[in-house]
């Protein structure tokens, strides 16, 4: 039996089948996030909604590419820890996004270089390709607030009312979705949009975006 199997077995008593399924999905995404350079070391945190009352979130200080089932906490939307590890200091960021968006079932919070850099420089992240436009749609932002603070969680949740991707000044980004896969896909496309914008700026382009008149008819295979 592998270490991962042993960890999953020890977590089984505290996590129900649905929670274990979501944790396994988040473990896979965490590894991919680090491999793609969207977070370093213990930066970033992940969560998924279990049901109307509960969500699961990565634990404090966990490295996203080293996650095991024991690195997760199950919490209520009221902020009570029901099982598992001590939750990330950013748990409020996830909790309050779920509270204002019943349609959201996963939150991916990462620290992507280009998105944070462009925002810090006062540059808009431009949606240029079909994938950027379709998956990101629009981008909210907040000023810098200390990590784990009520101000950060509340301001991000307010932006989440209208946006699925939020940039937090000098900090990171959150991507929301109806599934873990969709939240991750949005995080990837947000950073790619930022990288593309950065390259366009290097070429002297300051205005190219996806054709505004085509937004209304967007669809994807």
From TrEMBL:
Instruction: Quote the SUPFAM superfamilies the UniProt record gives.
Output: AraD/HMP-PK domain-like
Q: Report domain Class II aldolase/adducin N-terminal positions.
A: 24-198
Gene3D superfamilies under this entry?
A: Class II aldolase/adducin N-terminal domain
Q: Which GO terms describe its biological process?
A: pentose catabolic process
Identify one Pfam family in the record.
Aldolase_II
**Protein keywords:** Lyase, Metal-binding
The Gene Ontology CC terms held by the record are: cytosol
Q: Annotated Gene Ontology MF terms?
A: aldehyde-lyase activity; metal ion binding
InterPro entries linked to this entry = Aldolase_class_II_sugar_metab (IPR050197), Aldolase_II/adducin_N (IPR001303), Aldolase_II/adducin_N_sf (IPR036409)
Q: What is this protein called?
A: Aldolase
